[in-house]
Amino acid sequence: MTKRNNRYTQAFKDLCAVIGISLFVFSLGYFFDFFEWLVEWSRKYDAETIDEYVALLILLMISFSFFSYRRWSELRYEIEERRKAEEASQNLNKELEITIVKLMEANKDLDAFNNTVSHDLQVPLMIIGGFTNRLMKVYSTQLDTGAKEMLTIIKANTQKMDIFIKDLLAFSRSGRQQLRKTEIDMNELIATILDELKPLTEGRNLQFDIHQLPLCYGDKMLMKQVIMNLMTNAIKFTRQNSSAQIEVGCTQNDGEDILWVKDSGVGFNPHDGDKLFTLFERLHEHNKFEGTGIGLSIVRRIINRHGGRVWAEGRLNEGAIFYFSLPSQERKSERVLSVN
Asked: In terms of CB atoms within 10 Å, which end of the chain has fewer, N or C?
């Protein structure tokens, strides 16, 4: 029997050499427990029968051991790849956090710069504007036509700069001002804005179509600024039309209130739509439409702070429609209930 055991042992060693793995790998799969059972079983049969069974069993063991070893290798590879991916993800998260901190610091510095420069420029502009007005009133009879024209140009450009500085201040404050969110009656807010915009619409054939709007949740003063900017733009860019229409409405979709302001004005090239909300970007000629290129950037910043989105659609000479979204009252109520 010892000779037969040695034959089995040698067979296993030869098998390991053929498939290129050590006996230790076989021991991981409890093959030597099976080997002991095989020796005990072989005592019941003659050598020829045993050789046939042993050959068959060895083939089965080769298949099983190869599959087990391959699966173990694959599993080890998967674990290693997952570990590398997790390390890479952690490194990316750290880099992202550092980048976000740097961006926040840069934005704070930019806002502080805008705020300081705007305030510092306001006083000199007020002085220039004041002296210009005084020259035009007190010394108008002593000035020739050329001098009067120059003073008129100075006054106009001083007013433009004053508007620009005020817009810069508004842009800076829109990012720093603490949000005081309350329930907003949008219909009442629109009515107030239209009343304030009457001086811009007097004498024009301009029709307003205001749909029924829902209650929204946000900072009332900032939301007023958003709608005021959009309505002012709509009035400005329909100015060349003999008759024009401005429409304000709202749709609800997927937990959002999507409000929109639509006009029948000059529109814009659809390919330039992404530029509209970029700071200082202007798509129309300066001599036809006044502006600083800051108003829509203020809109985007305010809406982003409210957790919403802004976008626009339009075509040249076919009007434009500006959208902004806010989390709906239903979503707000669900969040409150989940917290309670």
From this structure: C
Whether 34 has a pLDDT exceeding 70, the answer reads no
The CA distance from 163 to 171, in Å, is: 12
Per-residue CA distances from 279 to 8, 15, 144, 227 (Å):
83, 75, 41, 18
The model's pLDDT over 122-137, given as tens digits with 9 standing for 90+, comes to 778 888 888 888 888 8
How many domains in the chain?
Answer: 2
What phi, psi does 178 have (nearest 5°)? Answer: -65, 135
Contact 283, 214 (CB under 8 A): no
Domain check: are 169 and 215 in the same one? Answer: no
Say how far apart CA 231 and CA 262 lie, in whole Å: 9
pTM (whole model) above 0.70: no
What span, in angstroms and rounded, lies between the C-alpha atoms of 145 and 140? 10
Check: CB of residue 42 under 8 Å from CB of residue 50: yes
* Residue pair 50/8 in contact by the 8 Å Cβ criterion: no
| Strand residues in the chain grouped as ranges (E) | 181-185, 205-210, 215-219, 243-253, 256-263, 310-314, 320-327
Same-domain check for residues 229 and 274: yes
Smallest CA-to-CA distance from 279 within 297, 302, 267 is with 297
Question: For 249-307, how does the pLDDT look when each residue is reduced to its tens digit (9 = 90+)?
Answer: 998 888 889 999 999 888 888 877 777 888 777 766 666 667 777 888 889 989 998 99
Quick one: pLDDT at residue 212?
92
Structural domain including 196 reads: 183-339
